[in-house]
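In keeping with the milestone schedule agreed at the kick-off meeting, the structural modelling team has produced records for the first pair of proteins. Each record is given below as a sequence line and a structure-token line. The laboratory manager (R.T.) confirmed that both were archived under the project's standard naming scheme.
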Amino acid sequence: MPPTAGLPVEAVFSMKSLAKWLLALAPLAPSFARAESACGQGTGPDIAITNLAQGETVGYELLLIKGAVAANIESVNLNLGDNAIDYASEPPPEEDRVFLPRMVHDWPAGGGRFKAIVHLAKGPNRIVLSAPGYRTRCLDINYAPSASTYRTRIVFVLAKDALEDPSLFQSAPGDSSGVVSAKRRLGFGALLIETAMAELMYQANYPRRTVHFRRDSRDQVDVTLFHSKRTDTELRSKTPDQLYDLFRGELDSTLQDGHTKFLCMLGGFGSGALGGNNQAMFGTSTLYSWAQGLDELIPRFSDSRKPGEFKLEDESAFRNTFWSNYSTGIGATLHELGHALGLPNLDEPDDVMQRGFDRFNRIFMLKEEGTLITDQAVHYGTTSADLLSRSPWVVAAGPVSLKPQARAPGTDARLARVGDRISLQLPAAARLSLDLYSARGAKLARIATGSMAAGPHSFRLPHLEPGVYVCAARFAAGAQALRLAIAIP
């Protein structure tokens, strides 16, 4: 697994006045007002959020929050306002809900950084973050699913004579492997893929855009069980190319509506990794390692058991653990889906369309094998991101119910770290100051100030000791600030 130089770009716009503006909106005021007392409690600096803007609208359900805290902070707590979806304390009957959106409150921090994940309800969501020594921080995010009719549909393909229970895929002793478990693993995997694509597009300096998986009548990811016209014996005699062509024909003739891409998962009779046209195909040999929901995500991505000890297949790029099989399995699924969306294989080693997909876990995790991750080593390069940005199947959020805020000059600006320099891209001329802060909010240095023309600018960073820092660009004409978290290993 070749390492690469450089760190993931993490930028965020901070609009301090937006919370008060939201409270002025009559339809939303009662919900947010009840949670307002939780904001700003305690003493100390604010928790820095490095990948999201206050009041931002996203078009996907599973929100990844990245931020910076002091190096001695071990966890960040996450809670929701009164408008949150109802997280059941006891699971409903299995036939009632395929995929359970469960709340996880405590998320690990390390090396001055944290990552936290939450299921969003449609419409406005208030997320309350807290950590020792910090004031509570409220983040308001609007979830507006796209109204586009272009959808990706997960199809779990079974042989004509396959039984649907109790075992559809190989699993470790004591772990479930029936229909409900398969649907939960694939349904939650679809949400991770939606979020991963949006975040990788954002890191590539594109607006957050992603695929949208087809939902059922309960607004859950629709995992369709599909029985082939061929028996298990017939399917096992086919090559991956033959299986791909066979299922492409069967699915197009029965489920295609002209606006659908198929993510075809093979149910036990074969393996293969292919994608193109309207279909991506991948085997389920690593499905034993996948999480069934948010509460299993960190344990599954931290599971160092060896598959061979349980006579399970290892498809992990020779890393030979449960977590690495999960990372490669779901990452390769995203890779093949990329082919179905028109992306070619590329020479960039960390692009999703090369072997970057092996490190899918690093999008969501802080640690790997107990060691802090300092290089995400998975991204969309310019070619991939540009092609995805023009695909009708890769869409932004749907219509926003909130009135858009007037934009200040820095709204579309970008900060990035390139080696020992900070690059600033301005869409229009602006007067601003560029300052460096510690993770706890102490101002360390002023990097630049004054009127700057539209276009690219570059500034040298001062010498920094190992740790996490925040670079902030503050604009004179407006309340917005552009922030970039910098990790110095």
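The second protein of the pair:
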Amino acid sequence: MKPLREMKIHIIGIGGTGMAPIAVVLNEMGADVSGSDRSESIYTADLRSRNIQVMVPQSAENIKDPDVVFYSSAIHDDNPELAEARKRGIPTLKRREFLGFMLDGRKTVAIAGSHGKSTTTSMMVWVLSALGLEPGFIVGSNLKDSGRNAASGKGDWFVIEADEYDNMFLGLKPYAALLTKVEYDHPDCFPTEEIYMEAFQKFLNNTRDDGFILLNADDLNQSLIPVPEGRNIWKYGINESCDFRAINLELSPNGCYTYDFSDGNQVVHVSLSIPGKHNVSNSLLVMGFCAVNGYDLEKASKALESFHGIGRRFELVDEWNGITLIDDYAHHPTEIKATLRAAKEYYPNHRIWAIWQPHTYSRTQSLLKDFCNSFMDADELIITDIYAARETYNGFGIDDVMKTVDHPSVRHLGSNENVADFLAENLRPGDVVVTLSAGDANLAAPLALEKMKHVSN
């Protein structure tokens, strides 16, 4: 292929969370980037502001004369643009096939895992930037402190959220392969837990010979994944066998955690500004990476203290009349538990409402028992209809969920409008509403508050 700066690249699905940041990086690297999507998104306006041509809707006429067409996992063979490109003999590549070429020559830091990828990748970017290393990066959500989710960067490091879905992360050859927590997910892509774990083994095997691997010693599943020989392997966690440990862990009065980070030689105090015990683990990974590379741990700790999270991860959406709205992308049982536990710790003595939008039929069916045991920290539970996303109805539905879920105050309200109406009638000062959704249920609680404001006026 030509050098990237000389290429014309067309991206099908450019308005999605996975593709939009890649388009930004390619554009900043000098490529001539265009793209299309089925509809407008929060990203399409930003891309156009960067002089990237974005066409909506998708059509065969959108394919002009690109050197390559790049498409997301959501694009099927019958897509008119993909079909047109193949008809004309234009090279077409999935995300994972193109990433290796795009990142050639960079020291890639690939952060993988079933949970915490976006937050941990963002933490890493924030800390490395604070250390003056000017990393390139791609994250699936915007950093609250910078408002960005991608940059080409000027330094050697390129930090990327390494998504396992559709085996995207197997297109990477990371210098540093880092794992957060590994737990079975995406049954539509990985039919069995064994196949899922094998994908992570292959990911670790792709680590460069001169690179290193950083594992979570507190995660039992990671101890079961065979690691490649000949690589430098480090471990982080709370137990005493770790290379990098959190000791003296405490919940501070502000509802966030503090701890002392130890690398065996130096102890540095870390105070987090985002809630949840799971973020202790996320920050440990970042501190461990800094320790491996000999960076200033005191500066890294100060940077973590000033990190305020990312969009749709325990994000404060609105506050009115003593009612608080929190939006979170949690769509796996473990993520739901962690988010609701964080809410309970951050808002003690408040009534916690959980709005759960099950995400995809296959995931909800495969993990149903675990889902139904995830809401013990919610005082009130509202369940919406299942968000199909890329799937079609498979015979399993919301009735199956409601027969299984065990909670003292649970109700199925279906649509966002129904949820909003119910909340508007029942919320009271002091309530905290936590939306748990990778779909569109995050629209319901703000709509309820708008209804309440309207009535109060």
